[in-house]
Amino acid sequence: MSDSAAELLSDLRQLRRKVRRDRHGYWLPLLLFAALILLAPLCYWALSAHYVSDPIPFTAMEIGSTPWHGGDSVAVWYWTIGLILCVGASVWWYHRRGLATGVEGRLGGYFLLAAAVPVALMFGGQLFELIVWSNYDISLYSRPEIIAPIVIGAVIVSGTAAFVGTRWKRLWVSAIAVVGLSAVVAFSAIAVFLLHGLVPLLIIAAALAVLAWLERSPLLAVIAVLFGVATAHANVSGLGRLLELDAEWRLLLDAAPPAAVLMIGGVIALVRSRRAAE
């Protein structure tokens, strides 16, 4: 009897692992985000957008309006529209893949991410800037000491709510609402700096971390960590700045390592997915 129970548990574990493998489809989001990053230099060059790459922490600067207005607003809109399209395409892809394989997990987390990112990017960053600008006559763009605690606090609240919702199922709906609100706050704060360097990649890093948790994928977790490290390096120093290149080439070299991580990771994930399907 004990042998039968052990075999049953072993079969159940193998079946669970197979279901998770069949559900994995993160290779497409990785390649989409990689393409978005690699196309950024072309967008900046074609539209003569200014690549602001002063090292973090930002030096105090005076601007007459928010980064959403003026000649360089094209850079903000490139990242905003690009991120929204990539996240939306990823959610559509998971839904389609689930229908095709017959293994469709909970899509609540994916839809939550798909809703939080566009709301924060389209409205949150502007709202933060306008409130502070109208009341204190300063720009949050040059005040990272205000934004950083907001982002950190939102991440802590979101992580705590996700843990509570996972641990106590009856609180799942309330936890999801808190996670969604916290995600909007965090992404809105990051959106203030969309014009600066490669800060938009921080949103991709956060999205990959959430996706790794939803997928329960060790490979994607490793890719997310490596991408986070490459993104931090690109924003703090960057290859282009280390080599003292012009702004046009600096953007290309700064964006190359994070894009390479996603491209290589996406190819590896695609190969593994095809092998698992055979």
From TrEMBL:
Domain of life the protein comes from: Bacteria
**Keyword Transcription regulation attributed:** no
Q: Indicate the secretion signal residues.
A: none
List where the protein spans the membrane. 26-47, 76-95, 107-134, 146-164, 171-191, 197-214, 219-239, 251-271
Record keywords = Membrane, Transmembrane, Transmembrane helix
The protein's name is Uncharacterized protein
What organism does this protein naturally occur in? Answer: Kibdelosporangium aridum
